[in-house]
Amino acid sequence: MLNLFDTQSGALKPVQAEDGKQLRFYCCGPTVYAAAHIGNFRTFVIQDVFRRVVELGGLRTKHVRNITDVDDKTIRNSQAQGVPLAEYTAQWTEKFHADCKALNCLPPHVEPGAVHHIAEQIDIVQRLMDTGHAYRSEDGSVYFRISSYPEYGRLAHLDRQTLDLGKTAATRADVDEYDKDSVADFVLWKARRPEDGPNFWPSPWGEGRPGWHLECSAMSHKYLGDTFDLHSGGVDLIFPHHENEIAQSRCACGGESARHWFHITHLLVDGAKMSKSLGNLYTLDQLQGMGHSPAALRYILAGAYYRRPLNFTLAGLKDAASALNKLGRFDKALAKVSGAKEPSYRELVKQRPALGIFEPAWASLEDDLNTPEALGHVFSAIKGIKPESLSAEEATELRRAFRVITEALGLQLPDPDADIEVPEDIRALADKRWAARCAKDWASADALRAELAQLGWGMKDGRDGYSLTKL
Ligand code: AMP
Ligand code: ZN
Known about the structure:
Layout: E1 3-6, E2 11-14, E3 22-27, H1 38-56, E4 60-65, H2 72-81, H3 85-102, H4 118-130, E5 134-136, E6 142-144, H5 160-168, E7 172-173, E8 185-191, E9 208-210, H6 212-224, E10 227-228, E11 230-234, H7 238-253, E12 257-258, E13 261-264, E14 267-269, H8 284-289, H9 294-302, E15 310-312, H10 314-338, H11 345-350, H12 359-366, H13 371-383, H14 392-408, H15 424-438, H16 442-454, E16 457-461, E17 466-470
Parallel strand pairs: 3-4, 3-11, 7-8, 10-12, 11-13, 14-15
Antiparallel strand pairs: 1-2, 5-6, 6-8, 8-9, 16-17
Helix pairs in contact: 1-9, 4-6, 4-7, 6-7, 9-10, 10-14, 12-13, 15-16
The chain binds adenosine monophosphate and zinc ion.
Adenosine monophosphate binds near residues 39, 233, 267 and 274.
């Protein structure tokens, strides 16, 4: 069973589904106002590793991840560019999906957009007004009264002094983001302002729009209920976002909110925080433009322990690519001896094979997702193995066990033969076979595959094309 650090209790805790079958969890999704950077992807990739370890460990999951498409930043940028909010956020949502796919992240089961849940957000504010946890200010905005919720500050471990400061000063925060020194009543509903342009909705308190923190309470409540198994985000979300979310959810809906809080430490670039002004903010596109592969980035992001800062360097990407090549060569060598078809993630989840020599790697994954330790075990395990000396059955079994670990990490193993030169006549035969396959002419496709095999070439079919390997 996976043991994972829980921010609220400050200790390792087993990850458990309340119903024993399906782990229901919520991840704060991207703010779609620009391309997500590699720091954001550290968080999303680690959440993906988490989900894979849970699923390979035998639990089904319900993974909900929202899209933040109505907040200070999306509105500011779309207004500045004179593009309607929906159109502006749609393009960045699409980009986000493409990057997630390139980084081999499983898509969440539910991906709700905040802008489609205005009614649900208003409902939460209404409940908070009805129970005295919220109040309307002179300008028509609505605030959460933090003094009405004695447990405020538990998640972020705020001390009494900080909290008292917030209360006695009776300050209010009307921006979405602020830090611990500015503990304050926070905004639930923002009164309409001219700079928001057409982005306002009617409410019982006047026209306006929801504050950022509200959306995750509304959507987690709608899709997962009052109490659910786990909630995750980067460490920057502990305060104020998640603290505020707990306060809103518990006061409006009852229940426990999330039973386990999983936060991922930030990625730094060359030891410094990423920022536009330092010029060290990377996106996947930029790295690809420099010739690096998404697979190498995935290796780095998945392979660093999530509770330590990850210091990203471009040199690290080169090392990652060569480590991946080593794993790819091992996999290929096993595949040749085994002859069995490549085990897919879904098949491995359905029936997890015995792990044998990869048992220690799995144990590291279950020990607070210690991915670097797991990779260390994998490399030591494969060191002394000569795939050519194994029987086909042994190779098949070993490959399935190996792939449990690489699939848990979501690694995209390169094909060591991918760069080989393919002679013209082989290419022509392969094209012919692909055309036959597309035309569902299975007899010709099979005959051509056999002909290719006779000439020493294997053909692997993908969804959008094929690849050739030397047999
Ligand atoms: P955002 O799009 O800003 O709402 O952030 C999406 C996710 O990325 C959130 O879970 C953030 O906590 C996380 N995040 C932001 N910056 C970093 C970083 N440098 N390293 C790791 N995660 C980050
Ligand atoms: Zn959130």
